[in-house]
Amino acid sequence: MTAAQPPSSAFLRCTQLSTKYANRHSVLHDVSFAIARGERVALIGPNGAGKSTLLRVLVGVQPYAGSVSVDGIALTPSAAAQVRSRVGLVFQNPDDQLFSPTVGDDVAFGPAAHGIEGDERDERVAEALRAVGLDAAAERNPAHLSFGERRRAAIATVLSMRPALLALDEPSSNLDPRHRRGLIEWLNSRPDLTLLLATHDLDMAAETCDRAILLSGSIAADGPAREVLSDTQLLARHGLEPPLGLQSLRFRE
Amino acid sequence: MLSAAAISPERRAGSAADPRAAGAALIVTIAALLLLPADLRLLLVALALAGLALLARQLRRLLRRLRLVLPMIAVFCAFIALRMADGTTLYSFAGLELTRGGLQAATALGARLLLLASASLLFVLSIPLQQLTAALAALRLPARVIAVLWLTERVLVLLGDDLRRSLEALRVRAGTLSRAARMRAAARIGGTFLLRAVARSERLADAMAARGFQGRVPVLRSLRWRSHDTALCAGSILFFTALWMVR
Questions:
Q1: Which of these, A196, A202, A207, A231, is most buried using a 10 Å CB contact count?
Q2: Chain B interface disruption, residue of A58, A61, A120, most B CBs within 10 A
Q3: CB-based contacts of A16, cutoff 8 Å, min separation 6
């Protein structure tokens, strides 16, 4: 499976992207892809493939070589703030993302940091909390929420920034089946979102994304989710276990 | 002195007293405690603080937090009592003497320290952190100091969780280890814990940067100085001035 031709009207474009860990171990090498506005892309790969690192690059917290542009803006240190207002990254561990004394404050943090004040900020906070079903938890301490609630709160912290691209890092990890199902349904209820989903959960990828990129240091495959996720040999070659119920996978149509 | 109006835990933005007033009252309390002689007036202050803690429904939390401070105060008082050779010797052991004067000095100092800790804890327990940071920002404290204060509570909770999990993991696997071996393992956990703390702080920093943080904690609550804040400040100053004058 070859890399898909980058769409001309790409919202996100990475060209010859390479990056290393702090110990100089190379993690991504010569990665090029583009995502159009409204596209929903699953980023799959084994542990250490560079999925999380790639997401960190997109918000400018991971140094890289090559070029990255979001909505036509080249990701440089001086343009990082503009890019961050367009890309909302939900980290793998919600405890790394929730740092304010109350959930409401945390959700308000992003808009406030981008200079949004007053009624508009309050409206965004209320809307984001409502979207994840946590409107009654605004005054609660994040430490007092269950893991599933913290995960949803972490998503709300990003939604309040109204990002054009929502990037989720392993969103289903540590979620019980009910909350995982709820998250899938919520993602599918938002067809307007441009989505980049880094996950091991191939069933979730199939249900929520149209396209899949298999990452293993570099791009090993890029194509329609149905094709990539059905290629059992390709998945096995890259240390991924094909879904058990491959025939019954509910691909997003 | 902190007023009941200023320390109600039910306060919300808009109806809240300005935490700057409570801060000013705290400073007056500390100054008065340092200046007042050690006699019944200290008891009066202690009763006033306890009354405020009760009004603010914080007495239990206050007592719970005080337990963390008590050992430090006890060690400090013991040091003072044994080092000050003044008056009749009450007890001597291994070259150390406990005198009546030393005991009195240590008791007075202990009472003061305890009251100072109570006043400070009551202040922290009664003012929501987001209002406290807003007040500090309004007082033009450096952004870096405010950011550190703002993050401290959350980071301490997370690090406490990490430490608890590490110790539990040690406990479930340490069944046959000797006490010395357990101590060595616990010391190793200390090192690992520090590394984890650094890694976690880096991840938090990334998460903040990803949402646009550029070194300044956004002020989410606007503060208003109200008439009862003026009354609080005036009342606390009058109260301690009166105590000072009648000493």
A1: A196
A2: A61
A3: A30, A31, A32, A65, A66, A67
Shortest Cα–Cα distance, A179 to chain B (Å): 23
User: How confident is the model over B60-70, as pLDDT tens digits?
Assistant: 888 888 888 89
Beta-strand runs (E) in chain A? 10-20, 26-36, 40-44, 65-70, 73-74, 87-90, 165-169, 194-198, 211-216, 218-224
Of B65, B17, B135, nearest in space to B9 by CA: B17
> Cβ of B88: how many Cβ atoms within 10 Å?
8
pLDDT tens string B26-60: 888 888 777 777 666 777 778 888 888 887 778 88
**Do β-strands A194-198 and A165-169 pair in parallel, antiparallel, or remain unpaired?**
parallel
- Cβ-based contacts under 8 A for chains A and B: 74
Distance CA B25, CA B19 (A): 10
DSSP class of B139 = T
What DSSP letter does each residue of A67-127 carry, written as one string?
EEEETTEE--GGGHHHHHTTEEEE-SSHHHH--SSSHHHHHHHHHHHTT--HHHHHHHHHH
Q: Which two tokens stand for residue B205?
A: 């920093």
B153 contact A CB<8A? yes
Measured at the CA of B159, the angle between CA B188 and CA A157, to 5 degrees, comes to 145
Of A90, A87, A88, nearest to A152 by C-alpha is A90
Percent share of chain A, pLDDT over 70: 93
For residue B198 the two structure tokens come to: 């650094």
- Cα of B202 to nearest chain A Cα, Å: 9
Residue of A nearest to B132 (CA): A101
Measuring CA to CA, how many Å separate B179 from each of B165, B171, B182? 20, 12, 5
CA distance linking residue A115 with residue A111, whole number of Å: 6
ipTM of the complex: 0.75
Q: Answer whether A221's CB lies under 8 Å from A1's CB.
A: yes
Tell me what the pLDDT averaged over chain B comes to.
Answer: 79
CA distance A201 to chain B (A): 23
